[in-house]
């Protein structure tokens, strides 16, 4: 009896290690066919579970809402984000050719829900040297293991971003100049 149990456990362990090795090989080589299989699995299985609480306080995934570049349909995709100088960093294990990224690049903006807060963001690809310091040691090891070289900064747009603050300050300065109130009394 024990021999049979050990054979089953051993076989499952070997199959699990072989599947993990195949996943690492596919991710590192960026094999299109293999990446397609992994992406379809994640879309049908993993993402469905993550969508339940993505973007909510305490959730491990954020939620990016975007519009299809061809269909015009609205989509929601769970993604992992990391804080990056007041903005957000995403590493792209499948590379840059993922639908959600192409959709937000085409639109120029997307809505990002992180810890229950909504942000309008714009995409900007960043170099690994600029991105890696924002990842934890464990996440840097995972990125290295899977050969991740593509990173995306999602820059906040709106009242809280630096460009909007600078534009508002510029408008305040021109209004003060027009009113003749160039300084404080």
Structure in words:
With 185 residues, the chain is an alpha+beta fold. 48% of the residues lie in helices and 23% in strands. It is built from 6 helices and 7 strands, in the order H-H-E-E-E-E-H-E-E-H-H-E-H. It has helices at residues 2-29, 32-51, 99-107, 128-131, 137-145, 162-179, and strands at residues 62-67, 74-79, 82-84, 87-91, 110-114, 117-126, 151-157. A 7-stranded antiparallel beta sheet has the order 2-1-5-6-7-4-3. Strand 1 and strand 2 form a beta hairpin. The radius of gyration is 22 Å and the shape is elongated. It starts with a helix and ends in a 6-residue tail after the last helix. The model is unreliable at 162-185 (pLDDT under 50).
Rg, please? Answer: 22 Å
Structural class label = alpha+beta
- The strands making up the biggest β-sheet line up spatially as 2-1-5-6-7-4-3
Average pLDDT number = 82
Element order: H for helix, E for strand: HHEEEEHEEHHEH
The 3D shape can be described as elongated
Poorly predicted parts = 162-185
Determine the number of helices (DSSP H or I, runs of at least 4 residues). Answer: 6
Please tally the β strands and state the result: 7
Q: Between the first and last Cα atoms, what is the distance in angstroms? A: 92 Å
Q: What percent of the residues sit in helical stretches (DSSP H or I)?
A: 40-55%
Largest sheet: 7 strands, antiparallel
What fraction of the residues are assigned to beta strands by DSSP? 15-25%
């Amino acid at each position: 009896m024990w021999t049979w149990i050990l054979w089953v456990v051993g076989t499952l362990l070997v199959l699990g290690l072989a599947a993990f090795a195949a996943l690492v090989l596919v991710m590192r080589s960026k094999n299109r066919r293999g990446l397609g299989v992994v992406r379809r699995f994640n879309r049908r299985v993993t993402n469905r579970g993550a969508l339940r609480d993505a973007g909510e306080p305490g959730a491990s995934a954020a939620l990016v809402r975007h519009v299809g570049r061809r269909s015009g349909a609205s989509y929601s995709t769970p993604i992992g984000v990391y804080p990056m100088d007041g903005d957000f960093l995403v590493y792209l294990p499948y590379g840059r050719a993922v639908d959600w990224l192409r959709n937000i690049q085409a639109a120029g903006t997307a809505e990002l829900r992180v810890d229950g807060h909504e942000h309008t963001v714009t995409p900007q690809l960043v170099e690994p040297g600029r991105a890696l310091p924002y990842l934890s040691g464990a996440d840097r090891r995972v990125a290295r293991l899977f050969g991740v070289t593509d990173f995306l900064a999602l820059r906040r747009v709106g009242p809280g971003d630096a460009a909007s603050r600078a534009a508002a300050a510029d408008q305040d300065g021109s209004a003060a100049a027009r009113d003749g109130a160039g300084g404080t009394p």
